[in-house]
Amino acid sequence: MKEIFVRLDRCVGCHSCELACAVEHSRSKNIFEAISETPRPRRRLYVEYVMARKMPFLCRHCEDAPCVRACRTGALTQDPLTRIVTHNPDKCIGCWMCTMVCPYGVIGREWERRIALKCDRCPGREIPACVEACPTKALVFMEQEEFARLTRLEAAEEVAKSYRIAG
Amino acid sequence: MKVVPTICPYCGAGCPLGIKVSNGEAIGIEYITDHPLTKGALCPKGNAALEILYHPNRIRSPMVRERGGWREIGWDEALELLARRLMEVKEKHGPDALGFLSSAKATNEENYLFQKMARLLGTNNVDHCARLCHSPSVVGLRKALGSGTMTNPIPDLANSRCIFILGSNFAENHPIVSRWVLEAKDRGAFVIVADPRYTPTAQLANLYLPLRPGTNIALLNGMMAVILREGLADFQFIAQRTKGFEALRASLSDFSVEKASEITGLNPADIVTAARAYARSEASAIIYCMGVTQHATGTDNVLACANLALMCGQVGRPGTGLFPLRGQNNVQGASDMGALADLLPGYVPTTDDGGRRRLASLWGREDLPPKPGLTVVEMMEAAIEGKIKAMYIMGENPAVSDPKAGDTLKALEKLEFLAVQDLFLTETAQLAHLVLPVACWAEKSGSYTSTERRVQWSEKAVEPQGVLSDLEIIGLLGKKIGLWDKTFSPEEVLREIGLAIPAYRGITPERLKASTEGIFWPCPDQSHPGTPILHRDRFLTPDGKANFYPVSHQPPKEEPSLNFPLIMTTGRMVAHYNSGALSRNILPLSRYAPSLWVEINPQDAEEMGLVEGERVRISSPRGEVEAMVRISEKVIPGLIFLPFHFPGVNFLTLKELDPEARIPAYKVSACRVEKGGSHGV
Amino acid sequence: MGYEVLVRPERCISCYACEVACAREHGGLSNVWVLPQGVPILCRHCQNAACLEVCYTGALEQRDGEVIFHREKCTGCELCLLACPFGAIGLDGKRAYKCDLCSHRRQEGLMPACALTCPAGAISYSCVADFSHRKRGIAGLSWAMGYERRGK
Amino acid sequence: MKALEEYSWCPAVQEMLRQAEKLDIETAWCRYEAQLPQCGFGELGTCCRNCMQGPCRIDPFGEGPQKGVCGATADTIVARNLARAIAGGAAAHSGHAKHLAHVLLLWAEGKAPDYTVKDEAKLKAIASRLGIPTEGKDIPEIAKEVAEKALEDFSEKETPVAWLVTNVTKGRAEKAVQYGVVPTGIDSAISEVMHRTSYGVDADPINILMGGVKCALADFAGCHMATDLADVLFGTPKPLVTIANMGALKPDAVNIALHGHNPVLSDIIVQVAKEMEEEAKAAGASGINLVGICCTGNEVLMRHGIPPITHSVSQEMVILTGALDAMVVDYQCIMPSLATVAECFHTKLITTIPIAKIPGATHIEFREEAAREAARQIIRMGIEAFKKRDPAKVRIPNYTHKAFAGFSTEAIVWALSQVNKEDPLKPLIDNIVAGNILGVCLFAGCNNVKVPQDSGFLTIAKELARNNVLLLATGCGAGAFARHGLLTPEATEEYAGEGLKAVLTAVGKAAGLEGPLPLVLHMGSCVDNSRAADVAVAVANRLGVDIDKLPVVASAPEATTEKAIAIGTWAVTAGLPTHVGVVPPVLGSPLIAKVLTQDVKDLFGGYFIVETDPKKAAEKLLDAIRERRKGLGI
C-alpha cells in the first residue's frame, strides 16, 4: 500500500498542500470557485512551525488507531487492508473524543456542521492532492519499501562520498 | 458584588483566590486569571476553601477547660487569664519555661509579632512546623548556596529541559506545580521522578525510579559518580562559582553506580540515564520535598541535591535551580520572620551579637536572649522533663503532626498551662486550658510569602464573627503584658518588618496591594522589582561562591526486623491537608477519604491474606493505628504507605532527629500489619 | 461560539479539582466525573445527541453547539442516562442533571469552572483548531528532534 | 507561550505584552505567530509575481521547477525582487525629501507662513555646495533656488543627481561613474528599476543588481536631501537631554504621540502645543504631554527633546497603556493594526497625509498652507479624547531612562572643536590611529518581530563598546539604545573599553559636560543616516583616503523595511562592511548571495555580513574593523 511520506528537510512552508487539500475537498475542485463555496472547503493537513522547522502534519492512518478506538458512534472506521481511517460524517456527533486522543493533532473541525474532519487520502485520486501540489516534493506518495530505499540511497551516497574523499 | 483577592490558605504555592462578596457575605469563589503562577487554576482544596468560613464546627468564643467541660468566657477575661498565667510561669521558672509555637498558616505580620513577643519575654523558645518539613532545606541550602529557599519561581519550570523530582508528590500536594512541569514536558523536557511509591506525580515521568525509602543520597551520589566518570560536569561553573569540589570528587572516588544500585534497588542503567539527562540538558531543575527532608539525614540529603545541581552548573539561570516545595501557605514567611528557635527575623542567628543587637535596638531594647531556643520536638521533650511549664500554641496541631505523637500527648498533658489559638477544637486544643478562637484567612488582611519567595497581600473579604485575628490577639496580649502600648494594623507591622529584614526592605503594603503578582524577595529598596531568580551572578554566601559538602549514604535509623518486617512511609493525598484540621472538617474534600487507609502491595497483601477494604491494625515500636486496606502496586513489596492527615499515624513515626536541622525522621519506620481492627472486617 | 471543553487525558493528575469546583458551581452536585484512569468525563454536547433523541418531554435541546437541559421539563425517566454513550448524565434522586458548560458563568463572560480550575491544564475551554494546533506543536518536537539526530 | 524576553527586551513592552494577553488584544507578535511557518519561496526570494503567467516558484532542492514560465532562473528572480525592494525604499526616503522640498518652496513663495527657515547658515552652506550663488540674495530667494534645485533632482536630466555627487568623496563618485551607476534623477532611477524588472526586460542578474545599486544611490541622495531640508526648516539638532520609554506618559496630562517619519507636521504640533496648555487645563488635565514614536519621534526628540516612548514593532503597546489620548501619524512604518487596538481604548488615531490613510482612523487632512490650524485641530481632538479616558484602564509601565540626543554632524564637529579649534577632526583621527578608538560603527534600522526587540542592538553595541568602537545610531536603533539607557554618560562608564572611555570623557569635558559623552551618539531618524555618512566622508577627506579604507562599519541587526534594504545597499556601495541581522530574501540565488557578501567587495569595497546571532555578528564586525586597520597600517 502506498503511504504519504514527508521528507521534512524539503518542506519550505509554502502551504501549497493545504490549499490543494481544501480545493480537492470542495464541490468545484477549482480554487477560484472554491473560495466562495458554503460550507467553506477546509484543509485536512496542516503546515506547522516547530523548532524553526516547517512541518506538514497529516493523518498517519495509524495501526490500531486511537481515534477509531475512542469513537463511540462508529463514525471512524479503519479499513483492515489499506489501514485508511475513514470518517463518516453522518455518524459523527462532534464529541471530539478522536480529537482529544489523536497524538498528532490532525483531526480538525468542520465548522458549519460541528463535526470532525480528517484526511481521507483523497479517494478517487491516484495521487493525493497534497502530494501532487507539493512544489519541492517534500510530500511523496509511495510504498514504504520505496521510501526506505530513498533514505538508504541517500545514506549510501554520503558514505560513498566520504569513502571517495578518504581515497 | 465584588471580588476580593486573597491568598489560598492551603499549601505553600500561594495561589490567588478571589472571594465573591455580596452584602458582607462570601458567596463564592472566582478564579484570578491574570496571575502568572496559576492562570486562574485552583486545586480541590482551594475550590473548597470557603467551607472553612461558615463551618458550624468553628469555635466562636474563648473557652476555658473546667472540670467536666468547656466554659465560654469573654475576650477580656480570656486575655487576662492568658497574660497572667504566662507571666506567673515566667516569674516562677524563668522565661525559658515558656514555649511558643508559631504558625505557618498565619500571616507574616502575625508571625513577626508572635516571635517578637516571645523574644521580648526573654526566650528563644519559639518555633513552628517548618522544623517538621523543610528545616534541612533552610540549613542545607544556606550552607551550600547561601539561602535556604527555592531558587526560581514555579512557572519558570516551563523553561526546564530536564526536571528531576525527588521525594515530592506535587501532583497531590502542590497540584499547580504539575501545570508547569507538564508545560515543560510539552516543550520536550525529560521528567525523572524518584519515589518509593508510584504516585500521581510519578505518572508524569519519562523515567520513574522506585528507590528504597531513605536511599536518596546513594542515588544522588551514584548519579554524580556517573557524571564525573563521563566528564559531564560543568567544570567552568565549578571553577568560577564554587568551592570545595575536590573534596567532593575525592568522596565520590570509591562510589559507583553499581553501589548506588545495590543500595537503592534501582536498575543501574536507569541511574545512568537519569544522570546523563540531568547533566546534559541546557537547563535542569530539581524539585524535592519531604521525601528528601524528613529523614535523620535530611540535611545531608539536601546537600546531596545541591552538590548535583552545582556540579552540573544547573543553578542561577531560567529553568534551572532547586525547588524545595514548602508545605504551608506561609511556611516560607514564618521562617523569614524568625519564628525559629535559632534564627531571628531575616535568618540572623541568635548567637550573632551584632545582628541581634541591631534588632534589639529596633525594638527599643539593649539586647535579646542569645541562647538558641528549643525546637518543636525538643520543646515537647522539655515539657515531659518538666522544663517547660507553659505553652502558647498559635494555629498548630502538634498532637497530630508531631512524630511519635504519643510523647506529644504526654507532654501537652503535663503542662501547667496550655493555650491554643485555632479555628477548630483540634486534637491539641482539646488538651488546652484555654482556647482562643481566631479569624481565618478571609477574615483578616496581611501578607504571605509563598514557597517561591513571592510576597503577596491577602485582603480581608468578610468581617469575623465573634473572633479576633491572631494579630489582634497578640497585640492585645502584648499590651496587657506591657510589651507595647498599642495594637497594630498589618500595614504597620509590615513596615516594621521592612526595617528589620533587609530582603523585605522594598516590600511595602502599598506596593503589594497594587501588584497582582506579588514581589519576590530579596527586594532591597522600593524601586527594586524583586528577585525571581536567585544566584544569577553570585551566590548569597558571604564570598559569593557556592560550597560543596561531600555526604555519604547512611542506613535509615530503623530497619525492618522480625517483629516489624515492613517499612512504613507517610505522605499526603490531594483532598486532605496536613493534620487534617481543616480538610477533615470539609465535606467536599473529606468525602474522597473519610478515614485512614493504608496502601499495601498485592504481593504482601496476598501473603497476609488481606483483601481490599479490610480493616487492619498497623503497629510500630511506638504505637498503633487502624486503617482500611487499599491494595495497590503503587508501593513496592515490603513498603506500606499511610497518608498522615489522620490522627494516629504519627503515633507510629520515629522521633530520631537530624543532627543539624533537628527534623524528625518521619519518612521511614519499621512496622507490622495485623488483620482485624476493633471494628472487625 | 466554537468553544468546546476539550481534555488532554495524558495531563490529568486525578486531583478532583474539577469535581469540587463543578459541585460548588452547581449546588453541590458535580457534572464532571474523574475516573481513576485519569479521565474527566463530562457531557460532550454532541450533535444529533442520543440523549436528546430519546427524550420525549423535550427537556433536552440542541442550540449553538450545546445540549441544553431544561430541568422543569424533566420527568426523571432516565432514558437519557441509558442513551448517553459517555455516562455523562447524573440523576439527583428525581431528575437528570448534566453539564451546562457553566451557562451562568458564561453569561458573565467567564469560562466554565472545570476548565479554569484544572491545575494541570488537562481541561481546556478552547476551539478545536487551537487545541489541535498545540498538539501538533508537541508532536512536532519529537519529530524535529528525530531529524536533528539524523543530521538534517 | 514564549518567555517575554523572547519577544522584547524592553521591560515596558514586556509589561504591556502581559496587559495585551490579559485584555486579549492582538499584537504584531501574535500575528507573526499566526503566519508561521512563512512561505519558503518568499523567504528565499524565489517567488515571482511580475507577470500574470505566474506566480512562478523555483524549487531550492532541485527536484522541482528550476525556471519560471518565461525562463527566468532563481538568480534573475531574486535580483529582480531585490531591486524592486530597493526602489520601494528609495521611493519612501525620497518621497519624504520631496515633501520637505515642496514645503521650502511654498514658504519661499510666501504660501506657507507657518514655517520659517530656522537654520540660515545651513541653507547657505547647502546652496554653496550646490553651486548656487548666495551673495546679495535674501533668505527666501536662496530657499527658493535650493528647493527648486532639490525638486530638479527628482526628474530625469543630463547631469547626475546633485545631492549625490556633492555629498560623497571624489573616489566614491568616480567609482559610481566607472560602474555606470550614477543616477541622473531620483524618480527616474526608481522608475528605471521598475521598468527593467518588469516582464521580459532585464534578465542578467548582475546587471539588475547594478540597477539596484544605482537606485540605492538615488536613495542616498533622497536621505541626504531630507536631512538637509529638515535642518533648514526646523533647525539643526544640538545635544540635549530627555527621558525615554513609556514611563514618560503622564497619568494626568493629555498624552499625544507623534508617529511616522516627517517633521513637517509634528514640529508644528510641538510649537502649537505650548500655546494650548490652558485649553488642556480647562479640560482637567495638567497640561499637554507630547511623546514620540519611531522616526517622527526621533525628529522632535533631536530638536525639542520630546521623549521617545517606543519604536517600530512595539508601536501598538503605547495604546495599551490606556493613557494615550491621541496618536497622530504621517507616513511610513505605521501599522494598520493601530486602528484596531485604538478601538479598544479611548485613543484617537489620526492620519494626516492623503497617501497614508487607515481604515478606522480619523483623517485630518494636513495642508502646509494651514499647518498650525491642522495642528490645533489635532491637539483639540486629543484634549477631547482625554475627557473620555477611563482611569480604570490606565496602566503606564513605570520605566524611563535618561537619554542624551541631538548629535548632528555639526554638533559632533562642534564638540570635537572644543578639543582642537583649528582642526576639529584631528582628535578623532589621532585616537583612531592610536587605537584608543578601534573603529566606528553606525547602527541603523528598525526592530523586527523575528528578533527579540532590542536584543540585537544591545548585544552588539555592548560587545563593540567593550572593544573601544565608537558607536553612532539613528532611527529605531537609536531608540532602542535610548530606552535601555545607553545614550548616557553612565553607560559609557559601564560598558566602554578603557580607550573609548578616555576619549569620550575628554571630549565630554571639553564640551562642558560633567562626564563623558554618551556611549552611543544619537544622530537622528533613519533618513539621518546621511549624517553618519557625512562624518565618514569628512574623515576620509581629511585623511585623503577613500571611505572603503576606513575602519568604519554599519549594522542593522533588526532590519525590517525596504528602506533598510536601500540604505544597506548604499552603505555597501559607500564602502562599508554592513551587517544585517535578519536574513534578507536573497538566499534562493546562491549567486546573488555570494555577490552581495563577497564579490561586491572588489567593486565598491563594502559588502554585506548576514549574521542572525548578535554575538557572532559583533565578532564579524570587529574582524572587519581590524582588517581595515591592518589595511591602513595602524
General description of the model:
The complex is a heterotetramer of chains A (167), B (681), C (152) and D (634). With 167 residues, chain A is of the alpha+beta class. Chain A folds into two domains: 1-58 and 121-142, Alpha-Beta Plaits (2-Layer Sandwich), CATH 3.30.70; 59-118, Alpha-Beta Plaits, CATH 3.30.70.20. In chain A, 31% of the residues lie in helices and 19% in strands. Chain A is built from six helices and eight strands, in the order βααββαββαββαβα. In chain A, strands 1-8 form a two-stranded antiparallel sheet. Chain A has a two-stranded antiparallel ribbon with strand order 2-3. A two-stranded antiparallel sheet of chain A has the order 4-5. In chain A, a hairpin with a 6-residue loop joins strand 4 (76-78) and strand 5. The mean pLDDT of chain A is 92. Chain B has 26 helices and 28 strands. Chain B has three domains: 74-132 and 332-520, 3-Layer(aba) Sandwich (Rossmann fold); 136-324, Dimethylsulfoxide Reductase, domain 2; 566-675, Beta Barrel (Barwin-like endoglucanases). In chain B, helix 18 (376-384) packs across helix 20. The longest helix of chain B is centred in the first third of the chain and has 19 residues, at 75-93. The model of chain B has no long low-confidence stretch (mean pLDDT 92). Chain C has a single domain (3-126), classed as Alpha-Beta Plaits. Chain C has helices at residues 17-25, 50-54, 79-83, 103-107, 113-117, 128-149, and strands spanning 4-7, 33-35, 39-41, 60-63, 66-69, 89-91, 96-98, 123-126. Chain C has a two-stranded antiparallel sheet. A two-stranded antiparallel sheet of chain C has the order 2-3. A two-stranded antiparallel sheet of chain C has the order 4-5. In chain C, strand 2 and strand 3 form a beta hairpin. In chain C, 43% of the residues are buried. Chain D has 634 residues and is of the alpha/beta class. In chain D, the strands form four sheets. A six-stranded parallel sheet of chain D has the order 6-5-4-7-8-9, sandwiched between helices. Chain D has a six-stranded parallel sheet with strand order 13-12-11-14-15-16, with helices on both faces. In chain D, helix 5 (120-129) crosses helix 6 (139-152). The longest helix of chain D is centred in the N-terminal third of the chain and has 35 residues, at 74-108. Chains in contact: A-C, A-D, B-C, B-D. Chains A and C meet through strand 2, strand 3 and helix 4 of A and strand 1 and helix 6 of C.
